[in-house]
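Aim 2 progress update. The chain analyzed this quarter is reproduced below.
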Amino acid sequence: MQIKCPSRATRIPATVLAIALAGWGSAAAQEPIEFKAGISDPVNTVLAWYMARDAGFYAAQGLKVDIINMNGGSRGAAELQAGRLDVMHVGLSSVIRVNRSGGDIRTIGSLSNVIRFTFFAAPGVKTAADLKGGVIGVSTFGSESDSTVTLALARLGLTRNDVTLKEYGGGTRRLEAVKSGEIKATPINEPIASLARGQGVAVLIDLVPEQIPWVFSSIVVRRGDIASRPDVLTRFLKGTIEGNYLALTDEKRAKEVLAKELKITDPKILDITYNDFKAQSPGNIEISRPGAENILAQFPGGSQKVEDYVDASLLEALRADGYFTAMAQKYRR
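Predicted structure tokens:
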């Protein structure tokens, strides 16, 4: 089940939306709008953005998109709230954390609706007893790497009180820390997960096969921009959706872009990384409501209303306008 109904407070007036949808066609003839897009780490869930930029889809929408590595989802979400980014690629956990701290941001689309983490262990860590009392490295507190630790520990009969969590930044840094024994475990996703396996790093818990619904990698903006800049955000979503369709249907080109952006040189890792993307990515970047509810269950004590963190109104407008159908026909999918 996908999230379809925006709350009344964030519903976009029909006249404003009509302008947003009608105006995109002439966007390319205007001066490009600078648009800063943050990512938590260069991973395969960013492929739709990379493809849209590489294929000129953002440029066709009148946008000049700069993709910036923020080295952590929560850090990037905070930068978005502060107005230093226009959009952030981050999971819903970070949205919840920011909003409960006085922020006002919303997920408007999703690039992955299942958990994509494998938990790797340091040498000698094979059981719950080995892990207890040790340090688990996450990218930033409040990120998906942080919130999914709770689920991984539960598989071992442990809780967060049994370990110490520390921020370690991106996946490459965490991999080196776990290999050296500086930390006892860490969650990692593709393509670094395949690199870790290739280097013989032990898997402690693999959540990927479980296909747990989760808004793992989403497109997040300031709530005020949904009402004040719907045209610009709609252009960005259009470019992203077409980039996603191209990535899902043109394997050769997608792998070329993945190899360049993620600096992958091993053909085997490239295959795994692309196939993982293809298996997990929602074509129309729709948001999983069960995924959102699963994340909210990890954050008791605050609002449990999905609409306080998610706004699907721009996607619903694109659906109603026939954009999803047009993309499916264009890319024969």
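The first helix runs from residue 14 to 23. Strands lie at 33-39, 63-69, 87-90, 105-114, 118-121, 135-138, 164-167, 185-188, 202-206, 213-222. These observations will guide the mutagenesis experiments scheduled for the next reporting period.
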